[in-house]
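quick one
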Amino acid sequence: MEATEKPRGCVHVDLDGLWAIRECYGLPGNDFLVHDPIYEQGVPNFLALFERFQIPATFFVAGRDADVPEKQEQLRDIVRRGHEIANHSYSHQIGFSRLGRTEIRAELERSQEAIRGAVGTTPVGFRAPGYDLSPALLSELIDLGFHYDSSLLPTFFGPALRMIARYLSGSLIAKRAQYGRLAYGRAPLQPYRVNTNRPWREDTRSPLVEIPITTSPLLRLPFHGSIAITLGIKHVERIVAVLIRRRLPITYVFHGIDLVDLLGVNVAGKQKGGRFFNVPFDEKHRIVEEILALLTRNFSLVLSRSWPDRLSLPEI
Ligand SMILES: [Zn+2]
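structure w/ zinc ion:
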């Protein structure tokens, strides 16, 4: 019936621990590794909404978090409820794609081990910190048997987003690696078998699938959770309407922090994060709810690990 006619969609949650977010924004203070509001509030809040809307989701987890015993029970709960856990590197370094192959491999393997140790299953998907990727990273993913990567943000606004991040972080991450290259703006909007040397291009013989984070079809504007929380639901509704008209699928990304009451958490220096760090919890929760309702109405939502099966490899 109608459900089979809807374009496919994936809902993602980047579960960056507060320590990782703090590093991104260059904020000082405690690193919240053990008592982390992202896990203590963000995870249960997302799980409750996913249950209400009957949404299967994929959570991207940093191995450093999976190694914390206090967080492992929450990770197991995510799996028990039928969601997927994917690898988000071990130490969530910004500039990840510029690491050497040995370091990249060590990050991938250490995180796989940590997640396997926590939940008993091995991830088949990966997202780099900072939405960036490199030929070396994609080759290592293939070598280690990953099925998909979901690091690519097809936007022309990478340089602008980098400037904002630099401003928010007081220049601590004034690096080129975050948000990818201008050419990524030309990448397909649907999952595709990825050319490891030119990740914005398709290579139908590649064993690895890229599941790009969806941006608007024409201008390639990002509209993921934190941007929706800053710009409002109308921005998301407009882009979803275009996707539906063009029968395009969606990969929609939230962050664990989107459902944390930040006003109640004493993150030193958070006033620097401007509106994003200071939106009242009820307002954020309402926007996330509205987005989830919009996604369930318009897309047939699946776990990310089911994508590669549907992009069959040609006979050789
Ligand atoms: Zn992250």
